[in-house]
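Shipment paperwork, digital attachment
Item: protein structure file
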Amino acid sequence: MNLKSFGKALVRRKKIDTSPSSSALNRCLTTFDLTALGIGSTLGLGMYVISGNVAGNTAGPAVVFSFLFAAIASVLAGFCYAEFGARVPKAGSAYIYSYVTVGEFIAFVIGWNMLLEYVIGAATVARGYSNYLDVLFNKTMSSHFRKWMPMDVPHMSEYPDLFAFVLTIGLSIMLAAGVKESTRFNGIFTTINLSIVTFVVICGSFKIDFNNWALEPGKDNLPKSAGTGGFFPFGFSGMMSGASTCFFSFVGFDVIATTGEEANNPQKSIPIAIVLSLLVSFLAYFGVSAIQTLICPYYLLTDDAPLPLAFEIAGLSFARWFITIGVLAGLSASLLGAMFPMPRVLYSMASDGLIFRFFAHIHPRTQSPLVATLTTGLFAGLMAVFFNVGELADMMSIGTLLAYTLVSVSILILRYDVEKEPCDDSERAISPESDSGPESPTPLTNNPGFLPVINKFRMRVFNSAEITLPNRETSLISKFLITIICGNITLLDLLLVTLEKNLSQLDKISLIVVGASLAYLISLVIALYRQPQANASISFQVPWVPFIPIISIFINIYLMMKLTFITWIRFAVWLLIGLSIYLFYGIRNSKERKINDSFQIAPVSYKSKEPTLS
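Attachment content:
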């Protein structure tokens, strides 16, 4: 493979059949099933553990704003996922979306990172489930494991958690039995979980004390670790760091997008389910985090089970057992939701030939990806055995944020891409969209001087000619603007994260640099807004393009900048393993390569004689 063909392979796009009959999987999921799956996969550790820990260690009562900011980031990404779900009703989620719009290499990177995201998510929930049960039984399980099978390895668990392994394998077998059976299980536990959320909010409302949102260091005996008290005890930076952690709580709604080949009506069901699941999840997180910081001082919420602790401190000890039921039901649904998309992404990548093809095997009776389901379940179980929740969660957000960013970029590319290239110049209508004709401006390419060059630049970049439909030239300009915008956003986010740590010491030069960068970004966004967009007829489209996708990109990259250096190192190692698989296997066995080769036309020999008429 020469360098030219290698470059073409990296950007080749997938051609898909979007008809319902094109799927080998069982189309049996309704909008209710998808919504319950999204809620179940989202409401879990975030509500029962993370909300309290963020309040106690990072944000204080401002945890409610941390959840709000994280929800906004998730909703903006959710809009982009919803449009793609309407456009591309196929299994694979962000992987398949990127393959259709951006190209094969970026699609593989996204799919590979999604596999890691879902595996870690499943392992984290399984380990959290085990830890919570262990607390209920006075840590009997962990003490016996430490005694019988101690592990003394840095950055790994103190003991192998065999319960988490058995739990993960059991759910994998249930998933392999069929998608309808597993979603029925998920619906039951999601209903129980939402009932407990309602109970927590109503019961806790009788013990609300707004003084817990206005604690003072000298008056309320605050420990030094509790910050400065008040509603923002750890400042704006603490609230935003809390938002990065709370973002983990919303990871899971994209499981809906992986069901494109198993939904009855994916073009309508997927957008509705994504929006509803995110709305319900945010209301639950906001209500629970507000209640527990109002009934209990935030600095006490540092226990492994902070929500039951808050109710005990408030004098509502009886609520502990109801909350325990909710925890077990919520974590069961969350674990199922985390495990559900893993085999579907692996199946989609294997079907395309980018990963070993035996993972694409469909069981004839259950119509589910059996090999992919059992393999990913085994991988998640082993991760849960040997790693703590903290070690597992470190890698969770980076793959998700990168996927969200690429989906938003893909929406921009699709909206400004030309839908159908004309066969020749004779097919171009005489209209403002064309470069010629009575209504077109006089071409400026032959006019000498500097001013015509400026005028041409203004006409092309800011679409002064009022072109209404994208053509090849406007598509190239839009892609160029999107590239520059993403680069500018990255630099601006890096600058903001650097200056955020010293807000009280900002000087005029820093403010001028931030202002200039922001002004430049706004001018680029305006130029992109002026470009013509494609008029696709689909059931759902992201509103206010390009603003919502660009804001989503800005927030996602900002949250990625907040992650630790060691997280980036681990991510690089995982990515290196994936690139090795792609370069030595996927790029040569790609289904799209075989399709392109089968339609390749033999090159013309210019040494041959001209044909003669007989």
